[in-house]
Design brief:
The protein has about 150 residues and is of the alpha+beta class. About 30% of the residues lie in helices and about 35% in strands. The protein has 3 helices and 7 strands. The chain has helices at about 35-45, 115-140, 145-150; strands at about 5-10, 15-20, 25, 55-60, 65-75, 80-85, 90-100. A 7-stranded antiparallel beta sheet has the order 3-2-1-7-6-5-4. A hairpin with a 2-residue loop joins strand 4 and strand 5. The protein is globular and about 55 Å long.
Length: about 150
């Protein structure tokens, strides 16, 4: 049996982008190669989710598309994956909703069609603060240190 993955559109409606089985992922292709590839990578990330983490840092690239999966919302009957995406068309905030029964207690009745766009937008605002802090820490780690002085242990 396959579990469906949806993308929340800007009006709150859901668009089915694919399905996940125990052995495979299936993308509903739209015919734009970088988008289809990006969605396939998202499906594989969702398939391999550890079912525990909420703050993650997973980078996906496809053609001119660069995206970061950075936060996961968990309910019993649905999981939401928050993605910031950049391409030549600009920046987008995306929420992929996975329609698989899990066992978290936030809401025992929440399915993808019951997730409210306002709740997702608020979660983006809250989680972006955490992401900004992670990026700030990375910037410090990647500062211009002398490779000869800082290499190895």
């Amino acid at each position: 049996m396959a579990d469906t993955v949806f993308l929340m559109k800007n009006d709150g409606n859901l668009m089915e982008i694919g399905a996940i089985t125990d052995n495979n992922v299936q993308v509903n292709k739209i015919g734009i190669k970088p988008v289809d590839n990006f969605n396939e990578q998202i499906l594989y990330f969702i398939k391999n989710d550890d079912d525990v983490s909420t703050d993650v840092m997973h980078i996906i690239t496809s053609g001119d598309i660069f995206g970061i999966v950075f936060h996961i919302m968990r309910w019993r009957r649905c999981t939401g994956f928050l993605v910031i995406q950049h391409s030549v068309k600009g920046n987008r905030y995306l929420c992929y909703l996975y329609d698989k029964v899990k066992h978290w207690g936030t809401s025992f009745a929440t399915t993808p069609n019951l997730v409210k766009i306002e709740e997702v937008k608020q979660e983006f605002i809250n989680a972006k603060k955490i992401l900004a802090e992670h990026i700030k820490q990375c910037t410090v780690l990647l500062s211009d240190y002398d490779i000869d002085d800082s290499f190895g242990v």
